Input
Amino acid sequence: MLVGFVVLIVAAVAAVAAFYALTVGHALDGVRRDQQMPGAYPGRPPAPAAASGRAAPLNILLLGVDTQGPDRGRTDVMTLAHVPANREKVFLLSIPRTALVAVPGHGRDRVNRAYEYGGNALAVRTVEQLLGVRIDHSVVVDLDELMAMPDVGGPNVLRELVTPAMLANPARFQQTVERIAPLLRSDAGLTSDRARALAAEVKLGLGVGVERGRLPVEGDGVLADTRREVHLDEQRLAALRGALRRDDLAGYWAGR
Output
């Protein structure tokens, strides 16, 4: 579902559909930008440098939070959106919510507990240390609020925004985007202007150039029960970390 947020941004301008780009641009002004990013900490991965004549690679963490109960909630959806320097694709890496990882200050625990312990800042730091790359921005959506909106598609609505049926109905598209935007929260750095600029940089058509995958897990790789703790495959994870640092997920994808 959060996957659709990034696809929505990059697809609107790439399709050269002025109406849709303008609608998304106005809707992004309604996003709450109150999510804290981690400050400096020992061993934090450096921000990637831009090569001559090219933009720097970009990493955006997408979080879907279940806020039922008295605490701040746990992340039921965790996805890293990696935008390479050439801006020709968007790579979406799903992080199994029950994967056992090192959560700073809390030992080894399920990755989805990081948000519960320390909000967006700790969730971002946990993923940075897990994958060895700097997270530039974060986007959070309250899944309970989204589930309460069945008239606009419920939890699948963000994916549905970029389907041909939705894009063929401008009035429905505009109404849906305007309803969803207030449910989204991001860090202060992901301004509407920044999001629109990113959309203009990425060379995508509607749904074209988006690669989806998941962090490697031990065993046969099948998550039969998403409630059980899973162990990541450290050997393949090391290869993935290297590909992210080199900005070569295309090569990693081809060799899987």
About this structure: The chain is about 35% helix and 20% strand. The longest strand covers residues 74-83.
